[in-house]
Structure formats: C-alpha cells, structure tokens
Amino acid sequence: MQHIPSSCMRNLLLTIAYCGRHLHGWQIQDNAVTVQEVFQNALFEIIHERPDIKGCSRTDSGVHANMYCVSMKISHPITNDHLMLAMNRYLPADVAVLKVEDVPDDFHARYSCKGKEYVYKIWNSRVRNPFMNGMALHYRYDMDVEKLNREAQAYVGSHDFTSFCTLDKREKGDFVRNVHYCRVERDGDLVTFTVAADGFLYNMVRIMVGTLLAICQGRIEEGSIPAIIAAENRKSAGPTAPSCGLYLNKVFY
Description:
The protein is of the alpha+beta class. It has 2 domains: 10-102, Alpha-Beta Plaits, CATH 3.30.70; 115-252, Alpha-Beta Plaits, CATH 3.30.70.660. 21% of the residues lie in helices and 29% in strands. Strands 1, 2, 3, 4, 5, 6, 7, 8, 9 and 10 form a 10-stranded mixed beta sheet that branches. It is globular. The mean pLDDT is 95.
C-alpha cells in the first residue's frame, strides 16, 4: 500500500466528469449550487482542509464535462486511490472523480493547459428524446450535416474570434484563438459538432453552433463565416445555442 508522509506536500491532478443539468457551472456562486462547491465540500469531509483548488476552465450553468481537470496541493497522507474512492462517496451522483495522479509542483490545471476539445450535441428529430432532456439541444427541423461540416471548416485556423464571443468583464485582451479542427457528424438522430483549439472565449462554441444553425435555417447565407470572423462584431454572428448541448470533452496538457 502506498504510504505518504504527512509532511509531504503534493501537487495532485484530479480528472472529473459531471452532468451539468442541475448544476450552475464550475465556479462558486452565492445563490446556486456549482461543481466547485460540491467538490470542495466533499474534499473537506475527507481531509478537513480547504486547499486552493485550480479548475481548468469556466463552464456555465447547464454545461457538462466528460473530462474536467482540477489541481491542488495537499499534505494529507491519503493515497491517490483512496482519495478518488472517498471523493466519489461524498460527491453527488452527477459528479465523479475518474482519476487522481501526482503532477510536478509547477503544474496548474488552467495555465498548463495547451488546448481543449468541446462537443455540442443536437437531437435532430421531430420527436423529442426524454433521455436527452437537458443533455442535448432538441432541433426538430431538417439538417444538411454535410453542408454544415463544409461550412464549419471556415473556423479552422488562427483567427480573431471577437464575433463569436459574448463580451463581459471576463474577456480582455487578445481574442485570437487557433482552432485545430472541427467537424459536424450524424449518428442516427444525434448530430454532434466537435471543435478543438488552443483556447476558447466566453460562449465561443455555443455561438459557433448557433451560427451554423442560422445557416441551416437560411437566416445567414452559406459561405458567410469568413466575413463574420473578419467583421469582429458579435452582431454579425448567429445566436448563442443553449447550454444543454455543450460538453467539455478533452483537456490537453
């Protein structure tokens, strides 16, 4: 059995997953239950401390994560495996710790991140799927997935994504992001938009999806995405798609 001396300060990386349907994003808020709050409360039950925890990203109310990373430094002698099992005992059913591992002292869940992959799920059927309630956008109308996939390739590359950002006090400075790849795919009635980049702006993926849906509906002309990017104006792009379909899928270090 692994034994950790009580005086040994360790930097840990915890990989978690969560369903955001009943949670209000990652960051602690005064009047809403968040992932960070339930995570910290579970941790306190185990080690009776509240270390400074670092989340890899902001996620909004209703957004999900297949992979979310948290780093923290603790001196408690609990082993990594026991910490994982204990956290899952105290966390609510919609949050789970998948892995706990040691990382170098200078590792930071957010600042050491080299990129992320998001997935947006759309249930494309005239009939809603009750098992997708809160887990995907229900879109009743026809979707030409091949066309939308072609349109989405205009997002790839290094661009100023001001047009695809909800501006608030959280967003300052350089709005250039490098999108590595994106694709729109269908599996039966489930359509997914997948995008990876070195970083994302506030609501960027949801606005990218909303713009594709506006093209699908004929409210934005085909081939307009390069001009929308060049405009650097949020009003040029489509609406912000609902949060229920968005998943933080992978975090790259």
